[in-house]
Amino acid sequence: TGKRSGRGGVRTFEPWMRARQTLLQDLEDDLPGAAERGELSVVFQPVVALHSGEVPGVEALVRWQHPRHGLIEPDEFISVAEAQGHIKAIDLWVLREAARQLLPLILAGHLRTLAVNFSAQHFSEASFMGQLRATLEETGLPLSALVVEITESLFMEDHRRASVLLRDLLREGAGVAADDFGWGYSSLAKLQHLPLSMLKVDRAFVATSAQFPGIVRSIVEMARSLNLAVVAEGIETEAQLGALRELGCGYGQGYHLARPMDVPALSAWLAARPATSLGSAQPVPHDQ
Ligand code: C2E
Ligand code: MG
Ligand code: MG
Ligand code: MG
């Protein structure tokens, strides 16, 4: 979309297209040094147990405060970082920073797990496990507190190295979550051989879970038979929350439960939360 042909077949280059191109070029140029310049930060979104209201952990999400363009969302720059090959450094930076910031909350028993997103690119490198361990050792976060989130597509091709690596992680007590789950898998047969401990149901299926519960229901049933935890992503309404509880979905994330927050806001949110709350909507700080 966006390309429009003029009458004589001449393409008009509209102002917004030029602005967009400038933005993308700037992001490409400026991303490599962003971490060093202190422009990257991490926010944390709680994962809520839908029946007890407990908060077992959080997911770390990266943010980029660009000096001229302001706050840039990961959907804008992760693909740039992947194309440039900078994503691996960024992911490890996020892991280090998130672990450092969250360790006090984990040691105090307020949270058990930290989930971090890892690009598929790590899994084609033998050095990844070593880098992961070194980063955790540096911060003091135990491997058993980490949940490694990877996109479902990593499993689409037969990534032998990825499988071995993820199996090692599971054996050592880390969690492995298939992010944005629901598009790629057709069969239970395939899923049962994958080294996973958790499925994160894609927001698109969560959005329609109240009207069309079929897909989430079958994911929950599949997960139960394979002994996998299920997290519904992007819960935005009370109706979705109710439907997901009824479907037996174990965990949820979403703006209706809590926005991604920095650590001070997260600590306050946790402290304000009644321990046995059923996880219904709470006043939440704005996305940062
Ligand atoms: P994701 O891992 O599936 O993360 C969930 C995204 O959904 C986050 O967007 C979160 O802010 C957003 N979200 C949470 N609840 C709701 C809701 O109720 N409604 C809506 N509409 N959205 C909700 P964010 O932070 O913009 O991240 C987007 C994606 O960027 C992530 O999707 C993940 O794939 C990627 N990403 C983020 N941080 C990192 C990172 O450190 N490394 C890598 N490799 N990827 C990252
Ligand atoms: Mg976003
Ligand atoms: Mg994720
Ligand atoms: Mg996701």
From TrEMBL:
It comes from the Bacteria. Residues 24-274 form the EAL domain. Transmembrane segments: none annotated. Signal peptide: none annotated. The chain holds residues 439 to 726 of 752 of the full protein. This is EAL domain-containing protein.
